[in-house]
Recover the amino acids of this structure.
């Protein structure tokens, strides 16, 4: 008789906080349920309070892994991008979130890991490992990586320079990347504000691009230029 | 009268818990603190009444089943895990609602409760057929059935016990005596343990510990006779045997699973104890056996 093979969860011996901190996280039915409900509530909020508009949904690939890249002005940004995705792909969408900001205190960790499904990204040290994590994620089918290549929220409302990390990830590959332009988020919830104002939000999703032959720096600059010119 | 008796039980429970645990405070005070919190929670739920007990037991079973599913890898199949959860919730519901035709409300639906495994297992067997799957299904079905029967249904008898006339006495006694049996086994094992009890399953369990715990469990019903004022001599002896033997068996039955899977603890939910399941495992045998023993001779109502 063949022996049964058991596959215990990798994080079995860890307390809840550690389980949320590690990545990739084990699938958890209750987390998925909470995340789906929160996403529904969030979509309703964005629609009603911010009268959010989404243009270019038809550019989202049906299947396969892809990257979404957007300008970053506010905590609302990631919620807007997630709201554009079909619900069934929600649990396979991983916004890269600053490890030094979102993965330190327990409440932020809970928000990042449960509601947003964030990927811990070390933006200062261990940058290479973080990019490697992203690369592995994209190597699996059906994953969506959400990146803000500016690396931080803009202070002025202008789009800052794109860091080359996104280029390192995409240059020389066939991974499609969707440039996304967000408007209104800076006015609605700028850095430092604690409650969103009812500004109208607009998300434009551009056509997918690939960079099979390009320099990393050129990729970052090109993406910034494309997003800058979008409206 | 029952309220007074149960309040006294609560006092004894707390006094005993505190006394027994203060000895451990120097070595493993985390374990001790967890015990205190658990004692307060259990007392809170029991005295909050019938509904709170049934809801609490159902929640414990749900999270216990979740640990089981995560430990065995069952959690990756959402259909089976979902069926397990549904079965556990059904156990809670049948404990809560009365018989649909007549019968006084608040007594639970005994017939359905006892017959529930038939229906839950039928649903579990149906899942591969509905999904048109074969590969690995026998393992998934077996794991779900074992998980539901152990953690959902057998443990769930504790919730149904809340429908008894003397619910406070029964519940507090069963929980307290079983946990004391655990602690006694551990203590006697540590002090006098020489001969391994079930060497393959749990290397730290010894004959000395098991016999010591059995003796404590046999004596306890006489000390705490006020928990079940209508029990005769034979019932008291039976209560002692059920707790003394059943507590050890429940513990070992979960250990078998852990050893076969190759893990030490079922989780890390309770600091100093391991998983939820590592704490409630002793009740898996005691709850249904005590339930039927008490119900057989007196009727729970």
């Amino acid at each position: 008789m063949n022996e049964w093979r058991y596959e215990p969860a990798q994080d079995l011996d860890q307390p809840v906080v550690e389980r949320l901190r590690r990545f990739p996280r084990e699938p958890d039915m209750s987390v998925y349920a909470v995340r789906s409900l929160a996403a529904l509530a969030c979509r309703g909020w964005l629609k009603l309070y911010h009268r959010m508009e989404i243009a270019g949904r038809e550019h989202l690939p049906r299947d396969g892994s892809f990257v979404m890249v957007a300008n970053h002005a506010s905590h609302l940004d990631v919620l807007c991008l997630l709201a554009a995705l079909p619900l069934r792909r929600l649990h396979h969408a991983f916004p890269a979130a600053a490890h030094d900001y979102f993965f330190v205190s327990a409440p932020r960790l809970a928000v990042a890991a449960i509601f947003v499904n964030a990927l811990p990204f070390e933006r200062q040290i261990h940058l290479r490992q973080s990019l490697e994590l992203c690369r592995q994620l994209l190597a699996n089918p059906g994953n969506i990586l959400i990146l803000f290549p500016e690396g931080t929220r803009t202070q002025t409302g202008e789009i800052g320079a794109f860091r080359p990390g996104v280029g390192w990830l995409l240059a020389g590959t066939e991974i499609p990347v969707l440039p996304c332009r967000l408007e209104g988020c800076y006015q609605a919830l700028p850095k430092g504000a604690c409650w969103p104002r009812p500004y109208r939000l607009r998300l434009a999703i551009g056509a997918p691009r690939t960079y099979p032959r390009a320099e990393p720096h050129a990729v970052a600059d090109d993406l910034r230029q494309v997003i800058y010119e979008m409206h | 009268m029952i309220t007074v008796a149960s309040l006294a039980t609560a006092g004894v429970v707390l006094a005993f818990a505190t006394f027994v645990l203060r000895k451990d405070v120097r070595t493993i005070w985390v374990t001790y603190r967890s015990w205190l919190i658990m004692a307060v929670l259990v007392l809170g739920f029991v005295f909050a009444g019938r509904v709170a007990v049934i809801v609490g037991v159902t929640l414990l079973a749900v999270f216990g089943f979740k640990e089981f599913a995560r430990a065995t890898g069952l959690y990756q199949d959402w259909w089976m895990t979902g069926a397990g959860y549904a079965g556990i919730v059904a156990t809670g519901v049948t404990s809560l609602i009365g018989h649909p035709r007549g019968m006084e409300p608040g007594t639970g639906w005994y017939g359905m409760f006892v017959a529930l495994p038939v229906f839950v297992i039928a649903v579990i067997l149906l899942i591969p057929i509905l999904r048109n799957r074969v590969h690995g299904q026998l393992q998934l079905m077996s794991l779900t059935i074992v998980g539901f029967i152990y953690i959902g249904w057998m443990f769930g008898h504790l919730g149904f016990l809340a429908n008894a006339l003397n619910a406070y006495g029964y519940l507090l006694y069963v929980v307290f005596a079983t946990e004391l049996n655990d602690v006694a086994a551990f203590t006697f094992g540590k002090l006098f343990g020489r001969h391994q009890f079930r060497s393959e399953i749990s290397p730290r369990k010894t004959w000395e510990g098991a016999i010591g715990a059995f003796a404590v469990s046999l004596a306890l019903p006489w000390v705490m006779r006020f928990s079940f004022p209508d029990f005769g001599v034979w019932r008291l002896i039976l209560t002692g045997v059920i707790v003394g033997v059943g507590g050890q068996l429940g513990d070992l039955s979960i250990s078998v699973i852990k050893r076969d899977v190759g893990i030490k603890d079922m989780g890390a939910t309770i600091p100093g104890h391991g998983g939820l399941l590592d704490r409630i495992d002793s009740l898996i045998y005691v709850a249904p056996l005590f339930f039927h023993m008490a119900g057989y001779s007196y009727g729970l109502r």
Q: What stands out?
A: Residues 28-229 of chain A form a domain with the Glycerol-3-phosphate (1)-acyltransferase fold (CATH 3.40.1130.10). Strands of chain A lie at 53-55, 66-70, 93-98, 119-121, 144-147, 173-183, 202-205, 209-211. DSSP finds nine helices and eight strands in chain A.
